[in-house]
Amino acid sequence: MKTSKIFIISIICVSLLTGCWDQQLLKDVKLVMTAGFDLSSDGKILDTIIIPLFTAGEGGTQVTESQVVSAKGDTPRDARNILNHKISEESDASKLMVLLLGEEYAKQDIYPSLDIFYRDSKSSLVANVAVVKGQAVDLLNLKLKEKKSMNEYLSELIRSEQIATVLPKQTRPLISDMFDPGTDFVLPLIELEENEAKIKGLAMFNEHKYTGHDLTLQESTLYLLMADQKGKKASIKLKVHENKEPEIKNFILVNVLKSKRDLKVRAKSPDGIFVDLQLDFKVEIMEYPEDLLNSEKKINDLNKKLSEMLTTEANKTIKKMQEANSDSLGIGKHIIAHYHETWQKINWEKEYPNVNFKAKANVEISKHGIFN
Amino acid sequence: MLNPYSFISSPLGQGQPIWLVSLIMIAICVYCAKEHLRVWARFCIVVSILLIVLFLFITYVVKDIIYLYILPVGQSGLPTILKGTTQATTSFLGFELLLVIFPYCLGTSGGKLKVSLMANGFVTLFYAYLTFVSLTYFGPPVMKFIPEPILYIMKFHSFQIIERTDLLFFSIWIVVVATSLMRYLYVISYGLANLFTKTNHSTFVYYAASLIFVLALFIPTNEKVISSFIKYQSLDSIFFILILPCILLLVSIIRGTKEVPGDVHS
Asked: Chain B within 8 Å of A172 (Cβ-Cβ)?
């Protein structure tokens, strides 16, 4: 009697353990891993998605091909619905890895296109958003030379550039910087170059809109160092000499080993906002054909020269950000926190280009490889 | 910050029939609540280990927070802060339970006071920590768009082996929610047993649970109803955790008699 009771109970329990009530099987959906939004000529949204096609090979399931589909709609969600009519199964963006925004589209408010990702509980919060110089659809239609799917290629590209301190790491959802009045954000800028996608630098945003101004690769690295977001390495190229022969001998390439940033914001009154930015770099020389780095004097001279040059470069980068009216360093945040009264009196949009920035770099060569 | 109702809008709750979810939940709670109070206490101790897991998950994002967001402190003024505290009382629901179960517990009054103060202090600190992290992670302007910031943080972070941390977080946290349903079942059944002068509370657990189940089926689960529930809940929680104890204290002062601890349980 007792055994049969236990038996019946365990049968009932086992039947309850069969799994989920509402499954979403991978075989019923088309996983969208890369998507792009463009503004079409008639003002509608052009949504392009890449669906990797999985095939079973010797080494397990592999992505050998992908399917690129585009559709036009009034809103991103509308375009996605129209896309669903074109593909065999329901599209599912819950594993989206890269979202590309066309240049023209990004010049509008970009928040509406992100809304669907933030609102849908299933969706993953997109980690990599990038701006494409030109049209996103052209880049997504690219035939890659590398045997890789587009999403892998793009996300690896972005990741390797993050390690090299060219692109910022997205540690918090983009939405936090977007709605913060005291800061603006930057996004990776990708350009289509013949048969490759190339990182061009950073696209500077003001509030929710792309300003059309960009930072070059070197400026991006400097910006990230100024924003205290150094990756594993950070390479900087400087022209230290003017008239050496051949031309190649004029340059020096250094890798920043350690960077210390000291940001001081003073905003006692609305008419005088001062920002002091002190940067201390410990660098390693990667390439310097001039050689003869064994004398202390030579190193000291180079230290001084590099400090001067980086100071000018840093100030130039800041000027560029001010011209674009993109407070990517988050100076406004400091004013909100420490000088709240000043903040309430000023219109930060108007005030930011007039802020007195003073950046100063101090370079110290601590390594020069295994060669003098 | 985190409320049990968010289950309905979560990816776990979506598409699941509400009757099944509530049936499973209530069945588990009945299973525990029909036993002696000691069983529930032990279960709570086991569950409290999960708090460590939650703490570790949250602490993982501390490296990404921006401390500047909490400054300037107190810019909105004292009235706004006081108004905010009434909404926060929902998180402190459950302490009114002490009024019901302490007579059944052994121990000196001093010991009981110490236990309740420690429990209260822990909850306060834990919630303050959660609030601090989510506020400095998202920043004040975004906070009003995000109903459940902790779940949202978890959604953004994925680890090498855990892709959707929010789902795992939710599965852990739903167990914590179960303990509070058990707590109410206890309180109801002990109250009913006392009312009908029965010594065994177990049968009343079934009545209460069936009533809860029927109510869960018939009450619509749209946001409007839920938010009005939360509103009334925070109002009545003020009554239960602030006004009622004060009245009881006054009564005991006026009557001047001292209850002997643990006498109900004899």
From this structure: yes
Question: Which sign does the torsion angle of CA A325, A331, A332, A333 carry?
Answer: positive
Tell me if A323 sits within 8 A of A174, measured CB to CB. Answer: no
- Report the gap between the CA of B141 and the closest CA in chain A (Å): 6
Q: How far is CA B8 from CA A3, A87, B16, B198, B220, in A?
A: 39, 31, 9, 37, 11
Query: To the nearest whole angstrom, how far is the Cα of B39 from the nearest Cα of chain A?
Result: 22
What tokens does B88 get? 């926060």
Query: Which is nearest to B32 in space by CA: B156, B178, B136?
Result: B178
- DSSP letter at A330 equals -
Cα angle B134, B138, B139 (rounded to 5 degrees) comes to 105
Q: Which helix (H) or strand (E) holds B189?
A: helix B165-195
The CA distances from residue B223 to A163, A177, A221, B17, in Å, are: 44, 28, 47, 17
Q: Is A176 left (phi over 0), alpha (psi -120 to 50) or beta?
A: alpha
Q: Is the peptide bond before B72 cis (omega within 30 degrees of 0)?
A: yes
A336: nearest Cα among B73, B259, B87, B8:
B73
Residues in chain B: 266
As given in the structure block, the two tokens for residue B23 are 């049936």
A183-232 pLDDT, tens digit each: 888 888 988 887 778 888 888 888 888 888 888 888 888 888 888 888 88
Residues A150 and A50 sit within 8 Å (Cβ to Cβ)? yes
CA distance A339 to A328: 19
Q: Using CA atoms, how far apart are residues B99 and B237, in angstroms rounded to an integer?
A: 13
* Tens place of pLDDT per residue across chain A (372 aa): 788 999 998 888 887 776 666 666 777 777 888 888 888 888 888 888 888 777 766 666 666 677 888 888 888 888 888 888 888 777 777 778 888 888 888 888 888 888 888 877 777 766 688 888 888 888 888 877 777 778 788 888 888 888 888 888 888 888 888 888 888 888 889 888 877 788 888 888 888 888 888 888 888 888 888 888 888 888 888 888 888 778 888 888 888 888 888 888 888 877 788 888 898 988 888 888 776 777 788 888 888 888 988 899 889 888 888 888 888 888 888 888 888 888 888 888 888 888 888 888 888 888 877 776
Distance (Å) from the alpha carbon of A92 to chain B's nearest alpha carbon: 14
Angstrom distances, CA of residue A115 to CA of A118, A169, A174: 5, 21, 11
Nearest in space to A97 (alpha carbons), one of A165, A24, A148: A148
Residue B20 at interface with chain A, using a CB cutoff of 8 Å = yes
Using omega within 30 degrees of 0 as the cis cutoff, is the peptide bond preceding A246 cis?
A: yes
Coil, strand or helix: which one is A203? strand
Query: Are B14 and A175 within 8 A, CB to CB?
Result: no
Neighbours of A103 (CB within 10 A): 19
Of A125, A172, A337, nearest to B68 by CB-CB distance is A337
Q: What is the ipTM of this complex?
A: 0.78
CB A20 within 8 A of CB A34: no
Q: Does A121 touch chain B (CB under 8 A)?
A: yes
Which H or E element spans position A192? strand A186-193
pLDDT tens column, B231-246? 787 778 778 777 888 8
The helix/strand/coil state of A292 is coil
